């Protein structure tokens, strides 16, 4: 088995996620299923990144769309995710509420099994929806690169710093997710997305993207640098 080597933590400041020490002393030693362990840590990470007056929750659809979750679970990610979430709920780490949306569809919402989480779950079971004023802590561009593309080099670090100064943070995050969803884990591809948004305006580029060929980013300035 060939291991993918972690390149180490970068010198640049990276985002920090605070989790209770019990996660590592009591919970991790209990979990003997790799997918359950990955999903538990990734869900707790997402919940810890949220700021909300009530206990934050995350939906099944949001987890299915998370590129980090999909990479972590590999092939048949949705099936592994469903099984791991079931195990985490049975273990008592997570709580799940089924919420009826206005269009009649049901939405699965996952919360941490904490005092605030239990209170929010009881409220949802009574038909009361706690306000979800959520603000996500955005990972910096170095973390996004290593999560989406791979190990970072010194030369690329300079390009990433320049990009972080040039483009809005939300554009950078969306571009990485766009590349991951198309399995184009290449900085030049991501850079081409950002440059196109800067040149054409993001809203206009998005409108055209819905009508364009999916190979649009591999034409033009970066076509010789991108593997496809």
Which structural traits does this protein have?
228 residues; Arc Repressor Mutant, subunit A; 2 domains; 3-stranded antiparallel beta sheet; 3 strands; globular; disordered C terminus
Descriptive notes:
This protein is mainly alpha-helical. The protein is built from eleven helices and three strands, in the order ααβαααββαααααα. The chain has helices spanning 22-27, 34-49, 60-65, 67-73, 77-91, 115-125, 141-148, 154-166, 169-181, 187-200, 202-209; strands at 58-59, 94-100, 106-112. Strands 1-3-2 form a three-stranded antiparallel beta sheet, sandwiched between helices. α4 (67-73) crosses α5 (77-91), α7 (141-148) runs parallel beside α9 and α9 (169-181) packs across α10. The longest helix is centred in the N-terminal third of the chain and has 16 residues, at 34-49. It is globular.
Strand-and-helix sequence, N→C? HHEHHHEEHHHHHH
| Amount of helix | 40-55%
Question: Which overall shape is indicated by the principal axes computed on the Cα atoms?
Answer: globular
What is the percentage of strand-forming residues?
5-15%
How does the helix and strand content classify structurally? mainly alpha
Write down the CATH class of the largest domain: Mainly Alpha
Task: Tally the helices.
Answer: 11
* Main sheet attributes: strand count, strand direction, barrel closure: 3 strands, antiparallel
Radius of gyration over C-alpha positions, nearest whole angstrom:
20 Å
CATH architecture of the largest domain: Orthogonal Bundle
Number of domains: 2
Weakly predicted, low-confidence segments = 224-228
- Give the total of beta strands: 3
What is the residue-mean pLDDT, rounded to a whole number? 83
Examine the coordinates and then state which fold CATH places here, giving the name of the CATH topology of the largest domain.
Arc Repressor Mutant, subunit A
Order of strands side by side in the largest beta sheet? 1-3-2
Distance between the termini: 26 Å
């Amino acid at each position: 088995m060939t291991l993918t080597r972690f390149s180490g933590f970068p010198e640049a400041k990276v985002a920090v996620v605070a989790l209770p020490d019990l996660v590592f002393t009591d919970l991790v030693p209990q979990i003997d299923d790799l997918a359950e362990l990955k999903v538990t840590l990734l869900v707790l990470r997402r919940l810890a990144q949220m700021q909300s007056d009530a206990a934050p929750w995350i939906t099944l659809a949001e987890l299915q769309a998370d590129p980090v979750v999909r990479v972590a679970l590999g092939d048949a990610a949705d099936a592994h995710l469903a099984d791991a979430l079931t195990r985490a709920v049975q273990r008592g780490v997570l709580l799940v509420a089924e919420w009826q949306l206005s269009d009649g569809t049901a939405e699965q919402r996952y919360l941490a099994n904490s005092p605030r989480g239990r209170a929010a779950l009881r409220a949802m079971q009574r038909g009361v929806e706690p306000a979800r004023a959520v603000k996500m802590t955005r990972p910096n561009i170095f973390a996004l690169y290593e999560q989406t593309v791979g190990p970072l080099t010194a030369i690329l670090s300079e390009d990433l710093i320049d990009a972080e100064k040039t483009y809005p943070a939300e554009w950078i995050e969306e571009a990485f997710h766009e590349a991951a969803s198309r399995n184009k884990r290449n900085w030049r591809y991501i850079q081409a997305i950002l440059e196109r948004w800067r040149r054409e305006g993001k809203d206009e580029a998005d409108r055209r993207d819905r009508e364009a060929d999916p190979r649009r980013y591999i034409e033009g300035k970066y076509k010789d640098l991108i593997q496809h």
